[in-house]
From TrEMBL:
PANTHER family assigned to the protein according to its UniProt record, in alphabetical order: HYDROLASE, PUTATIVE (AFU_ORTHOLOGUE AFUA_2G14860)-RELATED, MONOACYLGLYCEROL LIPASE
InterPro entries cross-referenced by the UniProt entry: AB_hydrolase_1, AB_hydrolase_fold, AB_hydrolase_sf
Pfam families named among the record's database cross-references: Abhydrolase_1 (PF00561)
Organism, as annotated: Mesorhizobium argentiipisi
UniProt-recorded name of the protein: Alpha/beta hydrolase
């Protein structure tokens, strides 16, 4: 059974938006309406999250990829551009490598191509906090790690507002499984074979998916466009205007 998903707009070209660890489609709320003016936009809450909170799963990369492909098939989508942020960018890599027939372009946003020792250390730390103190406290740590440049007064990020509004958005066991999903991920050599028009967006002050990861992805994919901005790990939302300018420019340049 296909997961519940959102479908907005009626354009001939489809944009598939894939969220990261948080798993909720509302991550893209700042950009979905504008995209829907020109494209058909698909987004979805992942298993254990939001509208699909009751859907059981094993919460692996393979499972999320399968759910995304099922949604594309159900929606009879064609000319699909995938836009994935953070772990959603890892899913985007898996989608274009394993199911290239669906895609005509890709955007890898605030993501990584290898779950290396640096990322393992951060995730191990978050896992220990989750085990000891639960989802909300782990969310507090993640919000701080995602801060742009440590500027706690940045009104666009609103660190204190984020911390105060963090709730248990998924069961602890679901979050734990999702946090384990990207361990050992490394498909760098395969990325050399990607021939799709590709955009890689990173942030210079991203502590969770550091800038060097974006640079490596762009170096591996032939002809990939690289854009480095700022705004911490959640830069699509902390710097929405700049993010939209970059994304919209790429989509226009690849519209055929």
């Amino acid at each position: 059974m296909v997961l519940a998903y959102n479908r907005e707009g009626t354009g001939a070209r489809t944009i598939l938006l894939v969220t990261g660890l948080g798993g909720h489609a509302n991550f893209w709320n700042a950009h979905r309406p504008k995209l829907a003016e020109r494209f058909t936009v698909l987004s979805f809450d992942q298993r254990g999250c939001g509208a699909n909170r009751a859907r059981e799963g094993v919460h692996t990369l393979h499972e999320i990829v399968g759910d995304a492909i099922d949604i594309l098939a159900e929606a009879e989508a064609s000319r699909v551009t995938v836009v994935g942020h953070s772990m959603g960018g890892v899913i985007a890599q898996c989608l274009v490598l394993d199911h290239p027939e669906f895609f005509d372009a890709a955007v890898f946003s605030g993501t990584f191509c290898a779950f290396d020792r640096y990322m393992e250390f951060i995730n191990d730390l978050r896992q220990r906090v989750l085990d000891a103190a639960g989802t909300v406290t782990c969310g507090h740590l993640s919000a701080i790690l995602a801060m742009p440049g440590g500027d706690v007064l940045d009104p666009h990020y609103d660190l204190m507002g984020r911390i105060q509004n963090i709730t248990q958005s998924m069961a602890d066991e679901v979050l734990s499984a999702r946090m384990r999903a990207p361990y050992k991920f490394d498909r760098r050599e395969e990325l050399r074979s990607v021939e799709l028009p590709s955009l890689v967006i990173g942030a210079s002050d991203d502590m969770l998916a550091a800038e060097y990861q974006s640079r490596e992805i762009a170096a591996l994919i032939k002809g990939a466009r690289l854009e480095i901005m700022n705004g911490g790990h959640f830069f699509p939302n902390t710097r929405p205007q700049r993010y939209w300018e970059i994304l919209e420019g790429f989509l226009r340049s690849t519209d055929r």
